[in-house]
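Could you show me just one protein sequence together with its fold in token form as a worked example?
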Amino acid sequence: MDYLSCKTPAMVEREIWAHLLAYNLVRKVTAQAAQLAGVHPRGLSFKATKQAILAGWQPVTTLEGADYGRAAKAMLHMLRTQKVGNRPGRSEPRAVKRRPKEHDLLTKPRKEAQKNLLEGKEWRG
């Protein structure tokens, strides 16, 4: 959620809620898989759970009844094996490197910028 693409306050609020809903869904699935494995939920991989949900949500939406239940159980049984290793002494800074973009931003209408390019005028956003 490092970048919010919406422009209006109402849509930004919806986008934040969507991110929170997705995060809670991943944590719930992780907790269910951890309960099956008999481990603490933080002992299972968040990223593996997220990837499994993203990979499997579309095919699962076509299933009904017992087939849906079997698919969900199979995913939980697979996820319980995705344990996070104990890495003592590991310490990573909580920072990201933002690289500058190599192109300027388009700050005028696209048609006007295209016209300037075709006329050979120097284009500056």
The helical segments are 9-37, 46-60, 65-79, 110-118. Residues 30 and 41 are 6 Å apart (CA to CA). The chain has a mean pLDDT of 86.
